[in-house]
Amino acid sequence: MRALLQLSKRIFSSSSYSSLTSSRTFATLSLFSPDCNGAAITTNGNVYARPWLAIQHRGVKVNAIHLRPGNVIEKSGRIFEVVDAEHKQRGRGGAILTLELRDVDSGNKQTLRFGAEEAVERVFVEERSFTCLYTEHESVYLIDLEKFEQLEVPLSLFGQAAAYLKEEMKVKMQFFDGRPLSGSIPKQVTCIIKETQDRAATPRYKKAVLDNGLIVQVPTYVEAGEEVVVNTEDGSFVTRANK
């Protein structure tokens, strides 16, 4: 598997990529769309293997209170991804849900309020598994090892979790009408402690710098050079990695 990933990385990044794609050895098709968040997908072989405008099943009506970040809704003929959701109780006036939404086509964000029981049309997205090849500048390069399809998307689709991306990491991508909406990584990942703070912040914990540059609180017994498991949702220490 490592050899396959190394080959894919060389093909994706090498200057000889264009000559390879012009030959019969590795026939590929790169599809670019200005409204796809800057994403490009490379499909092995057939032009019709994965068209951008795939048939997408619409969803069902749900109460706004059930919406979560990452969900996709349709409102006023536009498709939005839920970026953040905040629930507030307003006494006798009932609960209000404030949603931060991102327009899938334009990328623009806006904030809307809904009643907790207000009906909203949620649409379903396609989720696919990829393996991370590498990151470069503001992009991450992925590969679907089952279909041997390569995908380039902005790091921003992974949000703050982008800092944890590394070669060979298994990730999930969510698509709507063939367009990448967002990416997610495993809830727990293994990182290396690069350095620790000499003086503990508390009697039990001290600050440590990970190999990706992030700072976490670790137990005082953890030292530089050790591998630790980190919760990617809140950046907290979980345990020492098994050796």
Description:
One of its GO terms (molecular function) is translation elongation factor activity. It comes from Salix purpurea (Purple osier willow). This protein has 243 residues and is mostly beta strands. The chain has a seven-stranded antiparallel beta sheet with strand order 1-2-11-10-9-12-13. Helix content is 7%, strand content 48%. The two termini are 21 Å apart.
Secondary structure layout:
Layout: H1 2-13, H2 17-22, E1 28-32, E2 40-44, E3 60-63, E4 72-75, E5 78-89, E6 95-103, E7 109-115, E8 119-123, E9 126-136, E10 139-144, E11 149-154, E12 170-176, E13 179-184, E14 188-196, E15 205-210, E16 215-219, E17 227-231, E18 236-240
Provide a quick synopsis of the model.
By secondary structure, the protein is mainly β. It is built from two helices and 18 strands. It is about 5% helix and about 50% strand.
Question: Beta fraction of the residues?
Answer: over 45%
Low-confidence stretches: 15-57
* Rg of Cα set: 21 Å
Helix content: under 10%
Main attributes of the structure:
243 residues, mainly beta, seven-stranded antiparallel beta sheet, six-stranded antiparallel beta sheet, 2 helices, elongation factor, Rib_uL2_dom2, Transl_elong_KOW-like, translation elongation factor activity, protein biosynthesis
